[in-house]
Design brief:
By secondary structure, the chain is mainly β. The chain folds into two domains: 104 residues, Immunoglobulin-like; 231 residues, Methylamine Dehydrogenase, Chain H (7 Propeller). It is 0% helix and 53% strand. The protein has an eight-stranded mixed β-sheet, with no helix packed on it. Strands 1, 3, 5, 6, 8 and 9 form a six-stranded mixed β-sheet that branches. Strands 11-12-13-14 form a four-stranded antiparallel β-sheet, with no helix packed on it. A hairpin with a 4-residue loop joins strand 28 and strand 29. The relative contact order is 0.16.
């Protein structure tokens, strides 16, 4: 078995949240005790809750909720999303009530599987492209590039690297991720708090949209109904494709803690494949609960491209449904790699 502590060489950094009991507004005479170790508990464990009654009130009843869902004093965590959550205990006594709160961090129970790759084909890629988003639609590659005064939206013949269609973003915008859904292209910008929607065939800009909860735009993908958006944190937001409101989110977690700086993303066979900023790996994420189920180590690929002063990190992952293969590239890479993913022995 491969130990998780070996993963930082690939891309995973672990961050811990200190969790402890805290009360709501006003004075609260109760606090919640849990069996979470230093505030963290695995999702294969049973969460045990008890109430500390500081003033020995005669309690009529207690209602526990986890993120608004009613739970018992013993709760199965397997159906909850990973990450930091709040437990509330509504305590009824003496004809009134008080609400006590505490935070816990739900971790994944399983270690991520480790994968490597085999290169199937190499294709030319524009070395000037600071790749931020990559996605196939009808066997054609769409690409979003970054940098102020250099950001673009492109349609590319992936076999030749020829740019079939191109528009430049205004100089004030730093292009980020993109996704294609319902004959529309959705493109993010970095810190402007704004994204754009284009007609797929003409590249005519149809509208812009504001980020209503997250502060930044990093990566996009979709499952055919919902758009998923990363913002540089551990959060992946779920967007309605019509309103583009960030309606809910998952937190990306392993068995050790949260994974931040989730960047360019791709939806592949029911999972989210995501680059992590400044790292050479791709995380395979369960979109239902945020669990990192696998990690692909792409470290050797950077040595296969032309080495030059502006060469930057791996970024850009796309799945071609027609070939049923994955394509990856990087910022200022002169090659696009078609790869087969292989579980590491």
């Amino acid at each position: 078995m491969i130990l998780f502590k070996s993963l930082p060489i690939i891309f995973l950094g672990v961050f811990f949240i200190g969790c402890g009991s805290n009360s709501g507004s006003g004075k609260v005479d109760f606090s919640i005790n849990t069996n979470a170790t230093k505030g963290s508990i695995s999702n294969d464990k049973t969460l045990n809750l008890s109430l500390e009654n500081k003033k020995q009130h005669t309690i009529d009843s207690v209602v526990y909720t986890l993120e608004g869902k009613k739970i018992g004093a013993k709760a199965d965590l397997k159906d909850f999303k990973l990450g930091k959550h709040f437990i509330e205990a509504t305590v009824y006594f003496n004809g009134g009530k008080q609400v006590a709160k505490t935070a816990i961090e739900i971790l994944n129970s399983d270690l991520p599987k480790i994968y490597t790759f085999k290169v199937i084909h190499e294709y030319p890629h524009d070395i000037s492209s600071y790749t931020q988003g990559l996605e196939f639609y009808n066997d054609t590659l769409y690409e979003s590039t970054g940098q102020f005064k250099e950001s673009k939206l492109r349609q590319v013949d992936y076999k030749t690297g020829k740019v079939l269609k191109n528009i430049d973003l205004p100089n004030a915008f730093f292009g980020e991720g993109l996704t294609v859904l319902n004959n529309k292209i959705y493109q993010l910008t970095w810190r402007a708090g704004r994204g754009f929607v284009y007609d797929l065939s003409s590249f005519k800009k149809l509208k812009s949209f504001e980020y209503n909860k997250s502060k930044e735009g990093w990566g996009l993908c979709n499952d055919g109904k919902t758009i998923y958006k990363s913002d540089g944190t551990e959060n992946i937001w779920l967007l309605d494709p019509e309103t583009l409101n960030e309606e809910s989110y998952i937190q990306v977690y392993t068995n050790k803690g949260k994974i931040i700086e989730i960047n360019e993303m791709e939806w592949i066979n029911g999972k989210i494949y995501a680059n992590r900023y400044q790292k050479n790996g791709v995380a395979i994420i369960n979109p239902k609960n945020g669990a990192v189920t696998g990690v692909i180590d792409f470290t050797p690929l950077k040595n296969k491209v032309t080495q030059h002063a502006e060469l930057d990190v791996l970024n850009g992952i796309a799945y071609n449904p027609r070939t049923k293969t994955i394509f990856v590239t990087g910022k200022h890479w002169d090659k696009l790699f078609e790869v087969e993913i292989v579980e590491k022995e």
